[in-house]
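Ligand: 2'-deoxycytidine-5'-monophosphate. Inputs:
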Amino acid sequence: MTVRPMPLVIAIDGPSGSGKSSVSRAVAQRLDLAYLDTGAMYRALTWWCVQQGLDLEDQPAVARAAKDLQLQMGTDPSSPSVQVGGVAIDQAIRATVISESVSKVATNLGVRDELCDRQRALISESAKSTGGVVAEGRDITTVVAPDAHVRILLIANQESRLARRAKELHGEADHAAVSATHDQIVRRDKDDSTVSQFMEAAPGVTLVDTSDLDFQQSVEAVLELVRAQTGPQA
Ligand code: DC
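Predicted complex:
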């Protein structure tokens, strides 16, 4: 019998609309692990820069803001939270203005160095205090935690990703909603993929295609992989 490693680190990457945030959070809940949404960290920094009136194209200034950012990530999967300087910004970071501009911040290499360091520290702290963590993003399996016990790339075809995000943002997936969502999926992933590789699985990373799976089936597919790779307790 395989014994579940302690602390257990599960890394999940994927493009927008692959379902990785909701699936990762549900997996963390099922396994009693912490949950780290690294995309929320890039969004939090973007929010802060916008608040401060910083020009997002000014890369050195934005990288400095990353170093100084008073960011607090709550990693309880039943109520994950994001605070900057003590202010809760969970809703604010999901605003369209942030979604539209976050790639400018996420493609700043100085920002990535700083946030990747913070992500490694958070993974290690939360894993120690709760027995493990599910961390999700674009470069967790490859750059932030390449030595994670389970490494998964969650993908879905573009049609499914557009339909899911359209439903999330507009409540339906009709033609108008899908085209309004195009920028947030296709253009953003194109920009983001200039700095991270999340469209193809790197060596040792298992691909899970959720195009034809509903939410529960996607969660089960990930849990099944965790069980297969770490032991039956999962
Ligand atoms: O998953 P999301 O939409 O909340 O991510 C927000 C942005 O951050 C998106 O542009 C991709 C980027 N990101 C990244 O570059 N690396 C990560 N580990 C997580 C997110």
